[in-house]
Amino acid sequence: MIAGSPRPNIPWEERPPACADVVWRFSRNPIIARDAIPTANSIFNSAVVPFGDGFAGVFRCDDRARRMNIHAGFSDDGMHWRINPRPIEFRCHDAEIGALAYRYDPRVCWGVLTSCNGFVYSFGAALLDLDQPWKVIYRTAPYLLSPQMLYECVGDVPNVVFPCAALTDAATGRVAIYYGAADTVTGLAFGYLQEIVAFLKENSQV
Ligand code: BMA
């Protein structure tokens, strides 16, 4: 059972006929270009959540002085984004807490983990105990997605796919995964939760 709401409007594209992968890429990736706001060097590793009739996100935008910061954005379809050119403003009573050092990789995380071997960032899935989430029940040994497309292999940091958020439609089990590619742009990948969990159980190495 998927604990969540039916969300028929999440971004979605069916698995291509020739593809047997559990998780597949959106054919129009990357969905967010590195310069989608004027000052950005790169926009990646970003979090997305349902918001009103559409979606809201917190985007990691590194600027052209390579300062890392986070920006709010909104979308009707989860694919086309209006990202605020100004970073999110933090108002704190304690100036030290509000001071900008690094702000990056915001995420609303649901069961999708990143793993790394030091050279290549791929991602798989893990099932965690609901009450004791530090207990890993299953973890995929094979990756679900690894850097293979040009926009994942070439960029400011080559060979990185880095998921930070997923949207789900509880009625159908469809999952849309947002991921950073090569620390430069943002992509989308899709899967069915039932298939991901079945693959997880059959290919687990904890
Ligand atoms: C990690 C984080 C991520 C980044 C990844 C690959 O340590 O810094 O933001 O995507 O490295 O460079």
Could you say what the CATH topology is called? Tachylectin-2, Chain A
Question: Poorly predicted ranges (pLDDT <50, ≥5 residues)?
Answer: none
| CATH homologous superfamily caption | Glycosyl hydrolase domain, family 43
Report the order of strands and helices. Answer: EEEEEHEEEHEEEH
Could you tell me the number of beta strands?
A: 11
Oligomeric state of the chains? single chain
How many helices? The count is 3
Q: Give the class from helix and strand content and strand pairing.
A: mainly beta
Instruction: Tell me the strand order in the biggest sheet.
Output: 1-11-10-9
Strand content: 35-45%
Brief description of this entry?
This protein is mainly beta. The chain has helices at residues 95-98, 150-153, 193-202, and strands spanning 24-25, 40-51, 54-63, 68-75, 82-83, 112-116, 121-128, 136-139, 161-169, 174-181, 185-192.
Q: Care to describe what's here?
A:
The protein contains three helices and eleven strands. It has a single domain (24-90, 103-202), classed as Tachylectin-2, Chain A. The protein has a four-stranded antiparallel sheet. Strands 2-3-4-5 form a four-stranded antiparallel sheet, with no helix packed on it. A hairpin with a 4-residue loop joins strand 9 and strand 10 (174-181). The protein is mainly β and 206 residues long. The model has no long low-confidence stretch (mean pLDDT 92).
Which features would summarize this protein structure in a list?
4-stranded antiparallel sheet; 37% strand; Tachylectin-2, Chain A; binds beta-D-mannopyranose; 206 residues; 11 strands; mainly beta
